[in-house]
Amino acid sequence: MVLIKPNIPTDQKSAAHHVFRHIVKKDDVVYDNDFFKITQPESWNVVYRLKGKLAHDSYRIHFKNFDEDKLFQSDPAKKFQILDILEKLRALTGNKGSFRKPSANTLLLNQRNAFENKLRALTEETPVQKNLLDYDILRTLGTGSFGRVLLARDKQVPDSYVAIKLIKKSVVIKLKQVEHTINEKNILACISCPFVISLNTHFQDKLNLYFVIEYINGGEMFTHLHRNKHFSYEISKFFAAEVILALEYLHNLDIVYRDLKPENLLIDSNGHVRVTDFGFAKRVSHRTWTLCGTPEYLAPEIIQSKGYGHAVDWWAVGVLIYEMRCGHAPFYDANQMDMYRKIVDGQYSFPSSFKEDERSIISGFLTFDLTRRLGNMKDGTKDIRDHVYFRDTNFDDIYNLRVKSPYIPKVASAGDASNFERFEEEPIEWNDRGVDPYEETFKDF
């Protein structure tokens, strides 16, 4: 399978046109955002048509006053549509025609296909027959408004430690978070990335929902940042690279994460990052309007109640790099409304210790203009990878875990929990007997 993207000549102001011979073979093409998937790349090509500019009798496409850059900054789905499959593919080899083979990462295409296949399979999934009695509960790792996270050991697998996220059904309903919770389960069940937490299984009883996820014993980045006051230039850059790869993976699946912060980044025993807590994650094809996230990390378009997309995550990367280096967010203010004003006005400053390249990349992420925000421009994450800040970074080596982390947390054993804060232990309320009053509400969990 091949991805192709338009590479139409830019000198179209003279009303130049391209004529292609029509071949009816539509089943070989799948539309996907501004790309087309070609299932038989050696045999066929596709063409877009500009709405209202198609001469049906000759299949001639006119491009008048055509500006490729402006066109693809808007929604390509509204500008173009698929016409048919056309002649053999000299276009893909760059010889003739209006299309070229893009520099798209084959890995990203494979990841997307795997995600879509798993998502479709969820509808046929058999509910997991598990309950809390299958685990030895060892201690609490964290608490929140919905429930808590528990360190546990699977009784069936010796020395197998997991983290169990317990969510109370009644609280989810009260706070109107049912859709978010189902989204979280669906996303976690289908994703697979070295820098994203893995879901082992999930189940429910009459009172609670349970996510059984891999246990990352290095603890939260927030804990290490607090202990060290701030991270070095090298450590911050390494962690930023892994976070960027995680977001690139999620965005390729149309997932906007919306809750990047040190508390939601775990560090494993080898010093690698895992993005966790997908409660705000959502598949977004174009824009969404929900106000959610952590105040210090909100992008201005969220605060201004504008529709937003994946660009909010790139803004958050700028905030994260700054916080890793300083120990606090760039717009922090004890008064939340004043903080929002600073975010919208872009009011922040750099300590004198910051290097020029890190100032540059942070400023690139913290750009109000979405068409100029790093990661959100025409070349996407290529602009990030090519930035001078990452001049010595090999992202392929980072992705394949071939680069040793400059920061290794102290971990005594697989079940060590010393990197997590201690919480007062409370009895766990659970029930797998009788009638479930929430059965219909959570039938898709």
TrEMBL record:
Which Pfam families does the UniProt entry name for this protein? Pkinase (PF00069)
Give me the reactions it catalyses.
Answer: L-threonyl-[protein] + ATP = O-phospho-L-threonyl-[protein] + ADP + H(+); L-seryl-[protein] + ATP = O-phospho-L-seryl-[protein] + ADP + H(+)
Q: What is its EC number?
A: 2.7.11.11
Q: Extract one GO cellular component term from the record.
A: nucleus
Residues bound to ATP are K174
What GO molecular function annotations does the UniProt record carry, in alphabetical order? ATP binding; cAMP-dependent protein kinase activity
Q: Which domain of life is it from?
A: Eukaryota
Which positions fall inside the Protein kinase domain? 135-390
What are the record keywords, sorted? Answer: ATP-binding, Kinase, Nucleotide-binding, Serine/threonine-protein kinase, Transferase
Q: What protein is this chain from? A: cAMP-dependent protein kinase
What is the protein's species of origin?
Answer: Capsaspora owczarzaki (strain ATCC 30864)
